[in-house]
Protein quiver
Amino acid sequence: MQLSVVCVFLFVAAVLKTGESIRCYSCVGLAAISPTACMDPFDATNVSTCDTGSACLKSVAKRGDTVVMTRSCVADISENGCHRNSIGGISSDTCWCKTDLCNGATFQRATSTFLVALIMFAALIARRH
């Protein structure tokens, strides 16, 4: 009897998510096309509820006059922080944080994988212009 109760408890614990989700602003904007969509100041109506354990991200990539801003949910990070990088003429500032709607502030810095993806995205946009 006790073993079946333990098995049911373990099954329920494995199926249910624990922890709390946070909400983050969610948008991508190209300054030249939609300056108020995601750039500072921005239209703060797009809010996403992130998966449990996620963090919020705000990133801006620049190459010449081309500026791309991204706000979104990202996989959990160990602590709040920012990172500045420059590769191939593209500079980027990326910040991540773990409280509700924390990615709405004017710049505060993501994982290196996300940063590389963002730079590649910015380079793709720059090639089209």
Q: What stands out?
A: The two ends are 69 Å apart (CA to CA). Residues 14 and 64 are 49 Å apart (CA to CA). Helices lie at 2-15, 112-128.
